[in-house]
Automatic annotation (TrEMBL):
<dbReference type="Pfam" id="PF03762">
    <property type="entry name" value="VOMI"/>
</dbReference>
<protein>
    <submittedName>
        <fullName>VMO1 protein</fullName>
    </submittedName>
</protein>
<dbReference type="GO" id="GO:0005615">
    <property type="term" value="C:extracellular space"/>
</dbReference>
<dbReference type="InterPro" id="IPR005515">
    <property type="entry name" value="VOMI"/>
</dbReference>
<dbReference type="InterPro" id="IPR036706">
    <property type="entry name" value="VOMI_sf"/>
</dbReference>
Length: 170
C-alpha cells in the first residue's frame, strides 16, 4: 500500500519509486537541506530524503535508498528509530506559494517521521511554512519512497527542490 498526503508544493514531477531489499524495513532517515541563502538569493530548503533500511533491530548491516534528490544543500547524519523501531508515517512542513515572489518559493521545508515505538524523527529543516497533518500509518513498516521534485530551472528562475512525498508500506 501507499501513504501520501498531497500536501506539498505545486511545482513538481514524480521521481522514480525506490524500494528496500526484501527482508528489511526503513528504520532511519537523513535529509538534504539548503540553509537560507539571504536576501535576493534563491532558497530551496528541503532537497532530498534518504531512507536507512536494515534487517533486524539496529542500523548495522543497513543501506540507504532514495527516490531522487535536488542538487542543493548538504546531507544530515542519520536519525534512527530507537529500540529496534521502524518508520510508520510522516508529516511535511510546507511553505505555501508566495505570489509575486518567484525567487522565494521553497515548497517542502522539513519532514518528520513516526516510528513504530512512538518516537518521532526530524532531520535538518527550516522553520518556514506550516506543518500539515500526519499521513496514515503503515500497517507494518515503511518499505519504499517516492518524491515529487522540481528539476533545476536555471539561474534567476526560482527553484523549489522537494515538493511532496509518498511512502510505500509492507
Amino acid at each position: 500500500s501507499v501513504i501520501a498526503m498531497s500536501s506539498g508544493g505545486p511545482w513538481r514531477d514524480w521521481a522514480w519509486p525506490e524500494m528496500r531489499l526484501k527482508g528489511s524495513c526503513a528504520s532511519g532517515v537523513s535529509s538534504k537541506m539548503q540553509p537560507p541563502q539571504g536576501v535576493m538569493e534563491d532558497d530551496t530548503a528541503l532537497s532530498g530524503i534518504w531512507l536507512h533500511c536494515s534487517r533486524g533491530t539496529g542500523p548495522s548491516g543497513g543501506y540507504t535508498t532514495e527516490s531522487q534528490s535536488g542538487r542543493w544543500g548538504c546531507w544530515s547524519g542519520a536519525c534512527w528509530c530507537p529500540h529496534g523501531g521502524h518508520l510508520m508515517g510522516f508529516v511535511l512542513r510546507v511553505q505555501a506559494a508566495q505570489p509575486g515572489l518567484l525567487s522565494s518559493e521553497v515548497a517542502a521545508t522539513s519532514a518528520r517521521f513516526a516510528c513504530s515505538n512512538g518516537h518521532v524523527l526530524e532531520g535538518l529543516g527550516s522553520a518556514w511554512g506550516q506543518w500539515n497533518g500526519w499521513s496514515p500509518q503503515c500497517p507494518r513498516a515503511v518499505c519504499g519512497i517516492q518524491v515529487q521534485q522540481e528539476p533545476a530551472r536555471g539561474l534567476k528562475r526560482g527553484d523549489t527542490a522537494l515538493n511532496d512525498l509518498c511512502l510505500f508500506c509492507s
